[in-house]
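User
New here, explain this?
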Amino acid sequence: MAKRSTSRSFWKKPEGKTGLLVLLLLIGGAAMAVSALLPTLIMLTTSFINLAIGGVVMLALLSVFAAPKSRALIWYGFKSAMRWLTGFFVKVDPMAILNAYVEDLEENISTMKRQIAKLRGQMHLLNESIYKNNRQIRENLEIASKARDTNDRSAVILRSRKAGRLKESNLKLEDLYKKMEVMYRVLTRMFENSSILKEDIKDQVRVKEQERRAIHASHTAMQSARSVIKGSPDQRAMFDRAMEAIKDDVAGKVGEMERFMELSANFMDSIDLQNGIFEEEGLRMLEEWEREGDSLLLGSEKNKLISEAEDDSRILDLNQPLSEPSQRSGRSNQYDAFFD
């Protein structure tokens, strides 16, 4: 079951930033108006009667703002207005944003497929280098053994040291291969999960677009305002909150996916297998990612994939074709739970 995302507060959304700017402008305008009218206000308040009337008006205004229902209605109207205003400059419609994420996912999935193919090729080359080193280690040790039988001390030292250097090189290469295996397992699983994610988003948008039109047609803004005043749940607002939660969840998953793709691309670009060179920074970044908490896109599978890569008994088949899952009939959509 999909995990329900924590909805962001109004002030962290684009319309919230617009609202903050509008409030600052209103406060600035009010301060300028008070400053300009201050001499007149001082003159008016010298009259006791005018002062009493002003106090009554002020108390009436305060009582309106103090009433919970009035505050709720004003807050609802303010948020609606700021969302409408923000829509002129920024895309805030969750449906439109989700459609944009589908396009991003399609592009990322294609890029990820190429990265996996490149990584697989590098791992084959690395395996070949390790195999050649092992063969040369055996050959040098055999020559050293024969030289020892003939008391050829210089040959024993030379061949033994060469075998030692090759062993040391292989330890580094094998450690590098383990890291590449972690990356390969993670990328292939991300590829599979992203393909499913893309299909789930497309399904949700197709189904919920029709549902939203029906809800918005039957629940006007005035009806939603009345529901806010009564303090009862509003179907339109609940639906919009669920779509916002889906949008935020997808944003996090796509962001994580792109971050790991960038990390893996930088790591692979730093490797020179021909000369046995790779940058420590790439390894450090990968190890830092491994130490982080659960993945949004992989969930609890992240630790499992890392453990499998470190387990010598779990041999990775690099010749296995890449799985490209399609939408399966009967499989639940990971975002259905957001509307429960």
Q: What stands out?
A: The radius of gyration is 32 Å. The chain has nine helices and no strands. Confidence is low (pLDDT under 50) at residues 1-7.
